[in-house]
Specification:
Radius of gyration of chain B: 24 Å
Number of domains of chain B: 2
Structural class of chain B: alpha/beta
Order of helices and strands of chain A: HHHHHH
Shape of chain A: rod-shaped
Strand content of chain A: under 5%
Distance between the termini of chain A: 44 Å
Structural class of chain A: mainly alpha
Number of strands of chain A: 0
Oligomer: heterodimer
CATH topology of the largest domain in chain B: Rossmann fold
Distance between the termini of chain B: 27 Å
Radius of gyration of chain A: 22 Å
């Protein structure tokens, strides 16, 4: 009898533990999905801001990059993965945004330039949130017990999203300090030790 | 937004995290957000209307200081009820590495959670040991904020996760547009010093040694010393030739502090010891007074490498005198320092800092509010 009780107790404990692991995996998957949606939203905003600036300042190069990014976003919004192709298009847009011509043209349209900078800073943050979530999910999904028992199911492990989202330094009248308000209208900037130095890139999961 | 803030340390015991949570809550409320704070407290009557009592925390000796902790089932029930009653759009836990209300909230909640890490502790044995146990709670965090570069580094080293740097805010409202004290409006060029007279690290001696060379350049310059400690002794010690140029007004109230800054054409911080943060510099800049300060790490950072205020070599009276004379005799340069100082002060103002934090909230909160986690 007591053996039976012990066996039942052990089985219940194991089942509880596995259920808890599965719950954590589900929660992380939901967090990754939300972070992905947030990141896509910020990428869309950045491309729109860039397209507006390009139209105002007649910058064909920037307009082309924004258009290319925009086409990618349509399939992203339909659910396609954040893959290498998207990274290439977003990198091209980042590069176009850092062109000297953009900074010059932006002098005449500070508001539009500002919207672009603001959106670009948010892309960097959203990317960090996304990659943090991916790292947490991959680290739990990579545990031996989880792998052996196929707790992750058939879901493919999400990948990190790596783009060059460093902001262009702008020599404005106000010094580039520890970030201006997000809500009150100025762009946040990566500060000393901020996100632009690559140190935010998460390492590969085990 | 409906925002829940969890503070791990006893509300009515003085501490930096408590002050941060209070200022953040009040700034958010003033901006029209709905805010509720949950915190341990010794006497419930000390709680402001927006805060909820999580119970009495237990003092535990740890690492040479007393940490006050709270992890019992009663507090867990209170945190759970608080979460259920408020339906927050975002839950913001502070210092969730402390075994208290923030960690409890993190364990019990599900949904958009943001954490702020305050402590810089390069070799925390506790964090290293607890990493595995904390992971299930910390993997719920949608965004991590560190208040300093050191706090961020601690997080990276111990928990392998990065954080966004958003500094502590400073309440600077009362400093803008202050009036000079009665005897100082329109008087001779005045240098302001604020701090304890008898504390050598505050560097008053360096400033007094700089007075003769300063008077050689600006003959009617005057020094206004506001701060407690041994004024009579100092007056007796002072060179008789300097006495007419030095005013000792003693301790000033917080309400008069902005007026002290406004009474000078330049504020001087000649500190010789390391300071962790130059709040007083920010206050001077918010009051619109140009700053001359020792070239120490914290001041250099606040003064944007010397662009928002003049830096001089620590403990060097000659260079200090030259810097002061320059600010007093070059109105255009001084005006430029004031302008840049205003911009810097604005970046640290609680409203700016809170706006950045709200930006993070907006980015992590989705359609689903915070709920109580199953299991």
């Amino acid at each position: 009898m007591s053996v039976l009780v012990a066996v039942v107790a052990v089985v219940v404990a194991i089942a509880t533990y596995l259920t808890w692991l599965a719950l954590r995996l589900d929660r992380l998957a939901a967090r990754v999905a939300d972070a992905r949606d947030g990141l896509v939203g910020q990428l869309v905003t950045r491309a729109q801001a860039a397209a507006l600036l390009a139209a105002r300042c007649a910058l064909p190069g920037l307009a082309a990059s924004a258009e290319r990014a925009h086409r990618g976003h349509l399939s992203l919004l339909a659910g396609s993965p954040l893959d290498g192709e998207v990274e290439l298009a977003e990198n091209a847009l980042s590069r176009s945004l850092r062109a000297a011509a953009v900074a010059d043209a932006g002098q005449r349209f500070p508001q539009e330039l500002h919207a672009v900078d603001s959106a670009a800073a948010r892309v960097a943050l959203a990317r960090q949130f996304h990659n943090d979530a991916v790292r947490d999910l991959r680290s739990l999904a990579g545990r031996r017990l989880v792998r052996v028992l196929h707790l992750v199911g058939r879901r493919t492990a999400p990948g990190y999203f790596e783009i060059d989202d460093a902001l262009s330094p702008r020599d404005e009248a106000s010094p580039p300090m520890l970030g201006a308000p997000l809500a009150a209208g100025t762009a946040p900037r990566p500060d000393a030790g901020g996100q632009a130095d690559g140190s935010d890139r998460p390492g590969l999961a085990r | 937004m409906r925002i829940g803030l969890a503070c791990p340390y006893t509300w009515d015991v003085p501490g930096g995290v408590q002050v941060h949570v209070r200022d953040l809550a009040e700034t958010l409320i003033a901006a029209g957000h709905e805010v509720s704070v949950i915190t341990p407290v010794d006497d419930e009557r000390n709680l402001p209307p927006y805060a909820v009592d999580a119970g009495r925390a237990l003092p535990v000796r740890y690492n040479g200081s007393v940490a006050r902790l709270l992890m019992g089932p009663v507090s867990a029930a209170r945190v759970r009820r608080w979460l259920r009653e408020h339906d927050f759009h975002v839950l913001h836990v502070h210092e969730p590495t402390a075994p208290s209300v923030s960690l409890l909230a993190c364990m019990l909640a599900d949904g958009p959670i943001v954490a702020t890490f305050h402590t810089a502790n390069p070799r925390s044995r506790f964090l290293t040991a607890a990493q595995g146990a904390l992971q299930p709670s910390f993997e719920k965090l949608r965004a991590r904020i560190a208040v300093s570069e050191a706090a961020r580094r601690t997080l990276v080293e111990h928990l392998g996760a990065d954080a966004i740097l958003i500094p502590n805010g400073v309440a600077l409202d009362s400093f803008a547009g202050a009036q000079a004290l009665p005897d100082y409006a329109g008087g001779p060029p005045t240098v302001v010093f604020l701090g304890r007279i008898d504390e050598p690290r505050k560097g008053l001696d360096v400033l007094l040694a700089a007075m003769p060379p300063l008077l050689a350049a600006v003959e009617d310059a005057r020094l206004l010393v506001a701060g407690p400690g041994g004024a009579a002794g100092l007056r007796a010690r002072l060179d008789p030739l300097l006495r007419p140029h030095v005013d000792l007004i003693g301790l000033v109230s917080d309400a008069d502090k902005p007026r002290v800054f406004a009474s000078g054409q330049v504020y001087c911080a000649p500190n010789t010891g390391q300071e962790s943060f130059g709040i007083v510099l920010l206050e001077a800049m918010a009051a619109g007074t140009p700053v001359v300060a020792s070239d120490i790490d914290a001041f250099r950072r606040v003064l944007d490498d010397g662009r928002a205020g003049r830096l001089f070599e620590v403990g060097d009276p000659e260079r200090l005198a030259a810097a002061l004379a320059e600010v007093l005799t070059d109105p255009a340069g001084a005006a430029e320092l004031v302008r840049r100082g205003h911009a810097v002060a604005r970046a640290y103002d609680w409203r700016t800092v809170a706006a950045r934090i709200v930006g993070v909230y907006q980015m992590v909160s989705g359609d689903r509010p915070v709920s109580v986690a199953p299991g």
